[in-house]
Design goal:
This protein is mostly helical. The chain has a domain of about 80 residues: Arc Repressor Mutant, subunit A. Helix content is about 40%, strand content about 10%. Strands 1-3-2 form a three-stranded antiparallel beta sheet. A hairpin with a 2-residue loop joins strand 2 and strand 3. Helix 2 packs across helix 4. The longest helix is centred in the N-terminal third of the chain and has 13 residues. The chain starts with about 25 loop residues before the first helix and ends with a helix.
Length: about 130
């Protein structure tokens, strides 16, 4: 097994007061596969400049200059992020959204009711689903 150790202990990352780490579910839940490189660049930019509520109001022109992309490419990237439910946009405001929990594996024949279920009921459904 490879022993992991920092290559540069003098440069260990720390969370600054105005910043938070990028959620690993972007990879695990395949959010990255839903977007092209321009959309991912825009998402990283918005993650970087957003406030604690995920809000940012950079103009299209400013973002285009920072990312070195044309406005049509920026608009297409923004649309991909909205469709992937990574951001919300209402000119001039962007909001980086929290990542959704993975879609449940509930049987499509059993609609979600929004009501809590007991652990026994959840296990019964899982066993019945595995037997099918």
């Amino acid at each position: 097994m490879i022993e992991k150790r920092p290559l540069r202990p003098d440069r260990l990352r720390q969370i600054p007061p105005s910043f938070s780490w990028i959620d690993h579910r972007l990879v695990r839940d395949n959010y990255l596969g839903r977007c092209n490189h321009s959309a991912l660049a825009l998402y990283l930019f918005l993650l970087t400049v957003a406030d604690s509520q995920g809000l940012s109001y950079y103009s299209e022109n400013s973002i285009g200059r920072y990312l070195q992309i044309e406005l049509t490419e920026l608009r297409a990237a923004r649309l991909q992020l909205v469709q992937a439910e990574l951001i919300a946009f209402q000119k001039p405001l962007y909001q980086v959204l929290s990542l959704e929990s993975p879609v449940s594996s509930a049987s499509p024949s059993e609609p979600r009711t929004g009501q809590p279920a007991s652990l026994g009921e959840i296990l019964r459904r899982a066993i019945e689903g595995a037997a099918q």
